[in-house]
Write a structure and sequence with these properties.
Elements (H helix, E strand, L loop, with lengths): L4 H14 L7 H17 L2 H17 L12 H11 L2 H17 L20 E3 L1 H16 L3 H18 L9 E3 L4 E3 L4 H17 L7 H18 L6 E2 L9 E2 H16 L8 H12 L21 H5 L8 H19 L8
Antiparallel strand pairs: 1-2, 2-3, 4-5
């Protein structure tokens, strides 16, 4: 028996809200980003209530960690503030912006050092940071007319592009200033983070922003590279250019979302429609009947070689996997029921 889009969305949404999202951290933040995407697409009040309850509980407990990776839940604060106007949400958004601008660890070149709640990685930038912190700065800066935050978010974007994006358009997982070179591999989910940020920035930034064309060029080069490595299944291997590594699902969800978002706003060529649709179909085929997204690789630090990426577990339910899938499902819902934004009168 097959499921329609509405059924899958309901199952995935419920499965995500049943997860034990215990702390203010990156995985929870991506799950919330997905729920926010669905809330904005459906106007479902129960989603807003869930988000507010989770945020308020965390704030009451005082567990708002100041690290780059743990900035991810702040995306939900932005949306709750826009919906409610509650001043305390604005205060926390501004505090996180101040942390990133003034106190976050940086490399000598100014890029954010990738820091987690549990540890930091001296002198390393990771592609993950583009999503976890750089995109937040742009969103928060635009919301509060803080040009310094917008400029720094874009500065982080271009620093990461300059050091991590390769000639074939794909991104390395990390860069180490001590080695003065890239580290890790062409990690699939990392490429999803990068593609999502490019697509989201192109939606957020006004047409008058002089750096939009450079962002579009970066995204186009990346998608051209991804198209060359997409497996017949519609997925990508967890190390994109190593077919001996396993096929991974969260990257496909993230990449499909990025392409659909870019297509919706006219920011990418129609040539990538089929790539996105194949990735979306492949991702949805890995959703079980409880709404859990399967085949998602576990949290992945920078590894030394492809073999180390290949042994990362891929059997657990992961909050960030659910979030990436919800983002894709929200884009598909918008696609099925509304005209492209650039075609509206």
């Amino acid at each position: 028996m097959s499921r329609n889009l509405a059924t899958i969305i309901g199952q995935v949404s419920q499965a995500t809200r049943r997860m034990p999202m215990a702390e203010w951290n990156w995985s929870e933040g991506v799950a919330l980003y997905g729920l926010v995407s669905l809330w904005k697409a459906t106007k479902d009040d129960s989603l807003q209530l869930y988000l507010k309850t989770w945020i308020d509980d965390q704030l009451e407990r005082g567990h708002v960690f100041e690290t780059v990776n743990a900035t991810a839940p702040c995306f939900s604060l932005i949306e709750l503030y826009v919906a409610s106007g509650e001043a305390r949400y604005a205060d926390i958004i501004k505090s996180r912006t101040d942390f990133l601008l003034r106190r976050a660890e940086r490399l000598a070149n100014g890029a954010f050092e990738h820091t987690l709640v549990e540890t930091n990685f001296g002198g390393q930038m990771w592609v993950d940071t583009l999503f976890m912190a750089g995109l937040f700065l742009v969103k928060a800066g635009l919301l509060f007319n803080d040009r310094e935050a917008v400029d720094e978010g874009l500065n982080q974007y271009f620093l990461h592009v300059r050091h991590l994006q390769q000639e074939n358009g794909l991104y390395y997982h990390g860069w180490d200033e001590r080695k003065n070179g890239p580290i890790g591999c062409l990690w699939a989910r990392g490429n999803a983070w990068a593609a999502i940020v490019s697509a989201e920035l192109l939606v957020l930034l006004p047409e008058t922003e002089p750096r939009r064309n450079a962002i579009k060029d970066s995204l186009d080069r990346q998608l051209a590279g991804l198209s060359r490595y997409q497996d017949v299944s519609g997925l990508w291997t967890t190390v994109i250019d190593d077919p001996k590594t396993y096929l991974e699902t969260s990257a496909a969800a993230g990449i499909a979302y990025a392409v659909k978002q870019a297509l919706r706003y006219g920011n990418v060529e129609e040539a990538y429609v089929e790539m996105a649709n194949r990735a979306a179909r492949a991702a949805l085929s890995h959703v079980d009947w409880e709404g859990v997204f399967r085949g998602v690789s576990a949290g992945t630090g920078v590894q030394k070689h492809a073999g180390e990426y290949h042994v990362i577990a891929q059997h657990r339910a992961e909050g960030y996997g659910q979030g990436l899938l919800l983002m894709l499902l929200s884009a598909m819902l918008e696609e099925s029921g509304r005209a492209p934004e650039n075609q509206r009168q």
